[in-house]
Each structure stands twice: as C-alpha cells, then as structure tokens.
C-alpha cells in the first residue's frame, strides 16, 4: 500500500470553471501583486535645451527592467516551513527552495547528484558512509556550513529532539534511536552520525542501505542551521530561517502570501527569478481564474476537466509530470488458488491495462509494464510484451482450478473512494471484473469503508485480489520493490489466520542483494533481473501509471517536469 505522503507538490482538485467569454491577454509582467512593482518606473523628463550637454548628445535613458517575480497559486498555506516536520504538499514545495540536503535529485529525474556534499564513499560492507562537504557554503544568516552542523541535524531527526513526529525519518529509516523490534534488533537503519573533521561527516548504519543517497535528497533531510531550529517557533511565521538554498524567506503574511527572495550568497548557480511568491487561494474556481487573468503564473494539480485549457485560453499551457506511482493488482498467494502460478498468469492474460489507461483515465495515464514507472532509475522493460489473450487465460484458469479448486467466492478489493492513482475505482473494478469473467474467472467486488475495514482487511491478508497504488518515496528502486516483495507485506502472503507463507526467495534475494550493493551499475543489473522475475512470477500485476498536471502561462519557461519534486529555480519569460 502506498504511504500517505508521497508527492513533493501540492495536492488538490479544481472545480469546473464557469464559462468565460474570451481569454485576456497575458500581463506585461508575471505574477503581479499590488505591493510589488511590476513595471519599470517612468523615465525622467528629457533635459531642457539649457540643460542639454554642449559637446555630445547622450542616448535616451534605458528603462529599468521589471523585476523577475513569479507567483504560484496554492490551494492551502503551508502548515510549517520546518523541513523535518513538513508533511503537506505546500510545505514540501516551499522548503525545497530554501533548504538543501547532502544530495539532490538530478533535474527531472530520480537519480541523485552532489549537493552540500561534493562527494561520498562507502565501505565494502555498505555500513559506513563518508560525506565530504562542499567548501565555502554558508547558511543564509552567514554562518558557515560545517560537518558538526550537519551532524546536529541528524541527531535532531534520529532522537526526535526537540520532540516532533519526524514522519519521513520513521518512514525512510525504520525508527528512532533506542527503538528495537521484538528480537532486540534496532529499528533504525542509522546507528551513529559523527563529524570527523570540519568538512567530513560519517554515517554508520545498522544494516546496508544502498538507497541512502536517494533518501538524503528528500526535502525532509535538508540541513538547517541548528541555531534556527533551536528556536521554539522555528517553522512558523516570524521565526528565523537559515538554510543554504537558492532562495531566502523574505515574508510570510498571515493573509496567505509567502515571498522568497533570491539568495545573493548562494554557493551554486543563482536562481533566475528575483522573487518567488506563493499565494494561497483556497477556492478552486478563483485559483484557476487567477491564472487566466494573469494574477498568478502557475498552479499545481490541474483538474482533468481543464486539460483542454490551452484550446480555450491560448495564453496558458498544461505540463505533465512523469509518474512516480504504479496502480497494480495484488495477489494474496497464501489464499488458494493464488499460490499457483498458472492462476496468476490467467488473470494477467485476461486483463487489458492499455484499455484501462485509455478509457478509464482522463488522458493523464499510461499502461504500466513494471512495478515502477518507466523513466525512474532502476526501471527495466519486461522481456516481452504481455498482450491480452482471453483464450489462453481461460485454458490456464481451467488447468489451475482443476489442480487446486478455487473457493466459491473470490473477493476483489476495490478502493471505496478515489485515490490519486485511481480516480474512478468503481469503473476500473467493474472493468477488471468483466474482463476476468470473459476468461471464466468470477470475482466478487468488495468496497467496504476504507479506514475501518478495507485497509485492515487487505493488510491482514483477508483479500484474494486487491487494487492499490505504490510510489517509491525517494525514487530509488529499492523503495518501489522491496517493501512489496521482500516478504514483509502481509497483503501478499498471509491467510489472515496467522499463517504467512515465505516470499519468493529468488525475487527477495535479488532485492536484498541490490539493497546491499553500492555500485550503481551492479544494482541496476540486479534490478533488471528482479523486474524480469516479477514479470515471470506475477506476484502482482502492474496496470497503470498516472501523471499529475500543472497549468502555467504559455510564455513561462524554465519549468522542469519531474516525477519526484517541483523546483522553480530557472523560471523566466520567453522572449
């Protein structure tokens, strides 16, 4: 099952916009607000003849260029600007522009590159990681970045000091300092963090985790000057902010306008915008109207009803982010007959993901052929295409249920409410049910209450088949695959009576090796084998990967579609 916090951009659906007569021309300057100058001041009056120079004629004064200010509309204000505690989309989006981690995602990709750490090494056993910090970096308050400052950030997260949920630390590292499982083994992947020199940080792990560089690129693990987060109000309006990012927090107005200004002391390439404004507009219609009239320059999570916006408003454009999440059909192999490969293959051949993506999604989805989206690092295409074949599916099913009789009722758990990866669960559930019936596979749809029964039933292994989505939070293939197929997910291998079956050890072994190996090329080869094994053994069937959409003014350049984060360091107007 997908954890609830997966995307680094703001969520929200937009209502249908009331009809408008005709598009307004784009404004002369982007994202204007009443208290921000958006046009050059008038040129001074030309000198009188008596004042004119006598030896040469001066050229007319050049107009002062308008400041490069861009405004993005958000449906809700951030709850905090403390990156370690940020969980809502607005907070994750904004803190990404103020703070940086030891590593960063490559633009538009899920691979990582150096950021505050200019290099890192890991010991052969994969337990000791040494990060060399970039020299000459300062926090926005002028304090130099040191390994000791970075160490204190890690101690804050792993010990929950000061107290807080630190949700992403728990999700990505398994637990906090001092916590152990029933065998006494530490829950946390991180055993210790030390600063061995002013520029050297060493992270010691309790078990290998080759995905560590990807995890450290997440906004939650950005490095903040400890003197800033020591303030009890850190993250709230009016509290100090001291990061190393390309922008500074200039103002946070209670009425919903948050202003970032370009950091003049930024260590890297300067941001192109002089200012980024984030304006809270809770009403769906008003938010879209603000874009149409030029009050804002962009907005996230465009409602599918408005994907044709550019046809009505040529001054606007729609841009899709690549998917980070896969909708899949899961099999609980602890319940008969799903331990039989022929039964799972019969289902796979009976279904038609390409048709589902085309007919049941609003133009923002593609058929998925692997348990992580194409384009994310570690993805490998299947060894062959799996085309729908109802006759072969029927033959496999008959052979399967002859050898191992199926129960009278096969339950298919379909979410009772729409999810980001599944906007029409009832429609897809009905399509899957009908396609299976063509092959002689009769299923009964179950859609009980999501919180009180659906999730508990699936997590406890009471479902035969289930539709769910999964995203790799840090973009690493380990996060896409191991939580599902390393044997820890009861939805795939529990009969709800306390009798789990072991995972596919061939697949689980490949994934555990890939988690421990730190050479990227070797890891990629192992994941290619793992994807091939998933295709052959069908522990789950990938169906659809869905994209999210932004709407921007058409003359805005510098946006970078990304599956994992939204950054606006390079915004500018096209000439």
Description:
The protein has 3 domains: 70-98 and 230-322 and 549-573, Periplasmic binding protein-like II (D-Maltodextrin-Binding Protein, domain 2), CATH 3.40.190.10; 103-226, Dipeptide-binding Protein, domain 1 (Alpha-Beta Complex), CATH 3.90.76; 325-546, Dipeptide-binding Protein, Domain 3 (Dipeptide-binding Protein, domain 3, Roll), CATH 3.10.105. The chain contains 16 helices and 21 strands. The protein has helices at residues 89-98, 147-159, 167-173, 212-216, 226-229, 284-292, 309-312, 341-350, 353-359, 390-403, 425-438, 450-459, 477-485, 490-493, 505-516, 520-537, and strands spanning 69-74, 103-105, 112-114, 117-122, 128-133, 190-197, 200-205, 247-253, 257-262, 275-280, 298-299, 316-321, 325-331, 365-367, 411-413, 444-446, 465-471, 540-546, 548-553, 556-557, 572-573. A hairpin with a 6-residue loop joins strand 2 (103-105) and strand 3 (112-114). The chain is globular, with a radius of gyration of 27 Å.
List keywords for this structure.
575 residues, alpha+beta, D-Maltodextrin-Binding Protein, domain 2, Dipeptide-binding Protein, domain 1, Dipeptide-binding Protein, domain 3, six-stranded mixed sheet, four-stranded mixed sheet, 26% helix, disordered N terminus
